[in-house]
Design brief:
single chain; alpha/beta; 9-stranded mixed beta sheet; 13 helices; globular
């Protein structure tokens, strides 16, 4: 049995009646790596090159997710993406920023039709039909307002109390709506870093979309997005979060913030073992921008940190960190 939403009543009933005889397969939208493969399916040379990158990613991930002593940067061997492949990948990344990982929309004739399809089938239907039936949601319009508010700035640190004040929706309702949205796979969240990945820290959180095309469809964003560097930085961070969610061997993913100092992601690899990741999707990165990452690594005895960059030239070991362009990171690990 297949269900388009984890909250669908028919899906819930099937789980009850088939208890002990059912196995779940959680299928998410296509990753960037799958998107690139799809667009180059008939080019065996490119498919072979992408396969080699993927195997390298598996090897590195295994290294990172073991004890820190095995994550020695001197042992990390990552070949640069060949020049002839970079233009192809850059073109794919631009399209992926806009169209996302829903393959059924890729062949639709124009962007307006694609946006309408995504909004109707992945947002409106899930909130106004699936959730209304599954949890007897009486005011879907409030949940939709809440969801749209989260779309504005993916990756922004938020508090439920501030959202309550801004939206005019009481906090109790927001705390009720949030797990509903996560249940539908429209959004996911990261909590603020604590030394224990199993400890729940009540307070602010950061929200990310399961697919950025949903934001584009709801807010009616077009190709002009690709010229907005600030928004592209948010999108890059969102894509990294979605990739990290799939990493095997990780306990949790959080973000670090103390006063004005922040690290985008801290991957918890086990007791006292962390891999900090900073996303700097920009053409120039100053060393001073990595001071928080440097202090975190020193304080928590991390053997390395990763800096996700924009330019292909920002690649490889630079002092204490390993730099990887966004597209290369996604091909390795997503």
């Amino acid at each position: 049995m297949c269900s388009g939403s984890a909250s669908s009543p028919i899906f819930k009933k099937s789980r009850e009646s088939l208890l002990g005889r059912i196995k779940d397969y959680h299928i998410l939208p296509f990753s960037f790596k799958e998107f690139v493969l799809y667009r180059n399916l008939h080019d065996t040379g490119i498919v072979e090159q992408l396969g080699k990158i993927q195997e390298t990613g598996k090897s590195i991930m295994s290294m990172f997710t073991r004890h820190p002593e095995y994550a020695d940067l001197e042992k990390v061997i990552v070949d640069e993406v060949p020049l002839e492949l970079r233009e192809n990948i850059d073109s794919c990344l631009s399209k992926f920023f806009l169209e996302g990982g829903f393959p059924e929309v890729w062949s639709l004739p124009d962007w307006e039709i694609k946006q309408a399809y995504l909004f109707d089938n992945q947002v409106e239907k899930v909130i106004s039909e699936d959730l209304v039936l599954a949890v007897e949601l009486r005011k879907p319009e409030l949940l939709k307002r809440f969801f749209i508010s989260l779309l504005q700035y993916p990756g922004r640190e938020i508090s439920f109390q501030q959202l309550s004040n801004d939206l005019g929706i009481n906090r109790i309702s927001i705390e009720k709506y949030f797990p509903m949205l996560e249940m539908t796979d429209l959004i996911h969240h990261a909590e603020k870093f604590t030394r224990s990945a199993l400890k729940v820290r009540r307070g602010n959180i950061k929200c990310y979309l399961v697919d950025l095309a949903l934001r584009n469809s709801v807010l009616r964003i077009h190709e002009g997005l690709l010229k907005d560097q600030a928004v592209l930085g948010l999108y890059a961070e969102n894509l990294i979060f979605n990739a990290l969610k799939k990493w095997e061997g990780t306990v949790n993913i959080s973000y670090f913030r103390e006063k004005q100092n922040e690290i985008d992601f801290v991957v918890h690899l086990g007791a006292g073992r962390y891999l900090p990741i900073e996303v700097k999707y920009k053409t120039e990165i100053n060393r001073s921008e990595l001071k928080t990452l440097e202090r975190f690594c020193k304080h928590y005895k991390c053997s390395t940190g990763i800096v996700v960059t924009k330019k292909w030239e920002d690649f490889g070991k630079k002092e204490d960190f390993f730099h990887l362009p966004l597209a290369h990171f996604l091909l390795l690990f997503d």
